[in-house]
Amino acid sequence: MAVLKIVLTSNAYADWQNCVSFVLNASKEAAIKLDDEIKATIDNLSNYPEKNPIFEMNRTFPFVVRKSIVNRRYIILFSINEQEILVYRILDVRRKFEALI
């Protein structure tokens, strides 16, 4: 499989900023670490993206949505097509995020 381009939606960018900003309120070092972990996880999605499990919830999608977990607290939701990996959301799993999807 060819290396696929990774594209983040505006929601994913905003989610990323919100997650890091929230942690920044507690610790600058923790926020920097989280930012690095999210970036590394996103960068690694192009390495065998199908190895990530399918995201299952009550809502159905017209395409397969997969998930990748960061630091056991954040979930990256994405899909794979022939040209790219599209990252939809980066959410804190401790929140009730079903309404955001």
Explain what you see.
The chain is α+β, with helices and mostly antiparallel strands and 101 residues long. The protein has a single domain, classed as 2-Layer Sandwich (YaeB-like fold), CATH 3.30.2310. The protein has two helices and four strands. It has helices at residues 10-24, 28-44, and strands at 5-8, 66-70, 74-80, 84-92. The chain has a four-stranded mixed β-sheet. A hairpin with a 3-residue loop joins strand 3 and strand 4 (84-92). Helix 1 runs antiparallel to helix 2 (28-44). The longest helix is centred in the middle third of the chain and has 17 residues, at 28-44. It is globular. 18% of the residues are buried. The mean pLDDT is 89.
SSE blueprint and pairings:
Layout: E1 5-8, H1 10-24, H2 28-44, E2 66-70, E3 74-80, E4 84-92
Parallel strand pairs: 1-4
Antiparallel strand pairs: 2-3, 3-4
Q: How many runs of DSSP E, i.e. beta strands?
A: 4
Taking pLDDT < 50 over at least 5 consecutive residues as the criterion, the unreliable ranges are: none
CATH superfamily: RelE-like
> Biggest sheet, open or closed, and with what strands and sense?
4 strands, mixed
Estimate the helix proportion, in percent. Answer: 25-40%
User: In percent, how much strand structure appears in the residues?
Assistant: 15-25%
Q: Please state the overall shape, judged from the principal axes of the Cα atoms.
A: globular
Helix count equals: 2
Provide the spatial order of strands within the biggest beta sheet. 1-4-3-2
CATH topology: YaeB-like fold
CATH architecture identity: 2-Layer Sandwich
